[in-house]
Structure prediction request, 518 residues.
Amino acid sequence: MQNLDIAIEVTGLRTKYGDHEVLKGLTFGIPKEKTTVVLGGSGCGKSTLLKHLIGLLKPSEGSIAINGKEITGLDEAGLDEVRRKMGVLFQGAALLNSMTIGDNVALPIREHTKLSEATVQIMVRMKLDLVGLSGFDHFYPSQLSGGMKKRAGLARALALDPAILFFDEPSAGLDPVTAAGLDELIIKLRDVLRMTIIVVTHELPSVFAIADYVIMLDKGQLIFAGHLEELKTSNHPRIRIFLERRPEVETYSPDDYFKVIAGD
Amino acid sequence: MAFSLLKDITDASRIINKSFYWTFISPFRGKPVRVRATISEMVKAGYNSVPIVAVISFFVGIILALQAAYQLKRVGALIYVANLVGVSLTRELSPILTAIIVSGRSGSAFAAEIGSMKAAEEVDALVTMGINPVRFLVSPKLMALMVMVPALTVMSDVIGISGGFLLSVSVLEIHPFNYYQQTINALLVKDVFTGLIKAWAFGIVITIVGAYQGFKVEGGAEEVGRRTTSSVVASIFLVIIFDLFFTTLFYYFT
Prediction:
């Protein structure tokens, strides 16, 4: 983390759903103008963490500062101000199905600016061209393939030229070629537009292709934060299991196993 | 159990609060209700229900006239069929029939639409774009139903009375002009007006219940279906409760 500017700083983040603690006190920083991957197995709390970073959930404890501005205590109006500088690509792209792709991309522009309709149309075409979807503005989301939907969702996330871009499992449900195309796009966005990019994923090929910096969670705890090279050489047993795709070994003694199946 | 009921009540009051804020107050603070979406909701909820409301009102008018005649004939007061049909339709049956049809068509559609958007993270996407989902999704629907349920009720009044009229002049052999005179004399402005106030309130109830059930969806498609069903049941139930309340109110205070 030395000699890197920090875009997002998380301190002592804790969250509970009822009695179950999902995030158990996370402290880390996310560097500016780099791609940071949040890595971890299913159910480790990485999607919950993402929802905190974009202000959809409020933590039970701890603070989140985005570009030095604390967001956990903000009201809706204050959060909207922060969110205007963020773009989010959801897992299923989350395009509004009742609108065309063009209207979807135009939605945040129309909502937050007073630009003329002609300017809005030009911006929409620029964004769609950036993600390789020129000429698709009259299509409805249901007429597009999974990969194209994600690209369209990305165009919408980029509509207001955000400084920080979040991706929730960008390659989930895509074939390897399409997923690689999306990775390519993420790298381009970082290099050309100098955006801070945060990707939540568990797809290793994608991690090795795009990550500069990696944060790894395990059962709600932070087990690694550092550069990709450090991750590759780490000796932490949980990280090795993950990187070598080994199944988790269940260590039951025969007595314990009996207790488990007897339900006692 | 008690805790979850309390949570349901706070959630519902939050939706009511926000819906009213974004529909009635925020337009005066420079955030107007989306006009095009409102018109499209009006077409879906109002214009498209015209045929079904018309047919049902017509039949109910005939049924009412027949049932009234069954008793009134025996006391030789057949002409009072006109009073009974006119008053019961405008004060009671038109608003409630319209509300039940609109609950079934639009209330369920609101719950399904918002619910599937919630399941597909579209509601979250709106929030991250800095667009309030209640303003974006609920306000146009609330505006549309506040206008369209009373409008459909007026239509139902007219068509229902025509149904009663047609039956009375043909089967019951009441003179058309007498029936017309009798209806005009029986109906007071307040009968029609109280019916419209009810219809307006029913429009609000149906929208809020549909939106509430939609926003409560947490899981996937299965829950959308479940919430859609409960939105219809709950809105018909609440419509009847509100009907009881308004009828009592109007009985004593008009």
